[in-house]
Amino acid sequence: MTSRRSLLALASGMIGVLPAAKALARTTAAGAGGARVLSTWDFGAAANDAAFARLSAGASLIDAVEAGAMVPEADPTNHSVGYGGYPDRDGHVTLDAVIMDDAGNVGAVAALEDTVHAISVARRVMEQTPHTMLVGEGATRFARAQGFPQRNLLTPEAEKAWRDWLTTAQYRPEANSENRRARTPGGALDHDTIGLLARNPDGRLAGACTTSGMAFKMRGRVGDSPQVGSGLYVEAGVGAATSTGLGEEVTRIAGTARVVASMRSGKSAQAACEEVVKHIASLRGNAIRGVQVGFLALDPRGNVGAFCLLPGFTYAVTDMAGRTTIHQGTSLFQA
Ligand code: ASP
Description:
The protein has helices at 20-24, 44-56, 61-73, 118-128, 136-145, 156-168, 173-177, 247-251, 255-264, 269-284, and strands at 6-8, 35-40, 95-101, 106-112, 133-135, 194-199, 205-211, 232-235, 239-245, 293-298, 304-308, 314-319, 324-328, 330-331. Helices cover 30% and strands 22% of the residues. It has a single domain (4-331), classed as Glutamine Phosphoribosylpyrophosphate, subunit 1, domain 1, CATH 3.60.20.30. A hairpin with a 3-residue loop joins strand 8 and strand 9 (239-245). By secondary structure, the chain is of the alpha+beta class. Helix 3 packs antiparallel against helix 4 (118-128). Residues 191-193, 211, 213-214, 223-225, 244-247 line the site of aspartic acid. Aspartic acid is lined by residues 191-193, 211, 213-214, 223-225, 244-247.
C-alpha cells in the first residue's frame, strides 16, 4: 500500500514514449538534496517509506534497504515477491534475493523455499558465512538453522493462478521453460521484482533486490535478481544500480555491473541506464521484441537514472525530506 506521503507524479515529460534525448535531460527525479531511497515499480513506494523511516531513526543503510524489501515480501497481494509470489511450474514458490553495500559486503540466496523474508536470509549469508550466495536446499536449510520462521509461501490465490495457468498455458515443459511471457490468467506480464537503492547524506550507498522470479518458471530457474552485477551492484563513490524485467536479458550482459561501470567512466546515472538498455537492444534485436527490462541507478549525490525497453516501468523516489513520488520510466521503444 502506498502511504499518505506518497503521491502520483506523472508529470508531463515523464512518460515512457519520450525519445531518449529528452530523457537525458532528466537526471534528478527528486527534490532538493536528491533521492534518498529509490525502488522499482509503484509498489516500491511503501518499501521506500519503510526504508526512509529506518534511515531517519539513525539505522544503517543495510538496515534500511532490508526493512524496505521486507514490505513487499510480506504482502500476500504482491505475486512477484515473497509470500504470495507465484510458484514455479511445479507449484513451488522459490525466492531470490541479494543485499549489498558500497564496501563490497554482499549476501544472496537463490531458490529459497519456506521463508518469507529472503532478503533477511541474504543478509545473514553476508554476515554469518564466509560466502556470498547460498542456493536451493542449502539456502532453505541455512534459513531454518538461523531460526527464520518456516511457512508454506503458496497462498490459495497464487495456487489458483498456477492451476489456471496449467490448463490455459497448454503446459509443455520444454516450451514453457523458454516462455518469455509467463502471463497470469488475467493476461498481465508477470515478473516484477523490487530493487531498492538508498544513500545517506555522506553519499554512501546500499541496495537490496528480492523476487519470486518469473511466474511459473522452470524449477531451478534463477534470474538476474540475486546475482551481483545483474540484479544489483553498488560501488562506493560511483553509484548503485538495480534491474527488473526478464532476468535472462540482464544476466547475459551483467546489466547492473555495466550500469555502474558506465557511471565510473563519467556517465550520469540516467545516461548509464540508457546505454545499457540500448546495448541489450542492439545485441538481441528481434529476440527482445515484447520483452521488458528496466534499470534504476543512483549516484552518491542522489541523482537518479531510470530507463527501460518498453513503456510501463514505474519507480518510486523518496527525497531527502521523505516525500515519495511515483515516476514513469522513459523507454527505448514505444510498445
Ligand atoms: N527480474 C526478475 C527475474 O527475471 C523478475 C522481474 O523483475 O520481473 O527473475
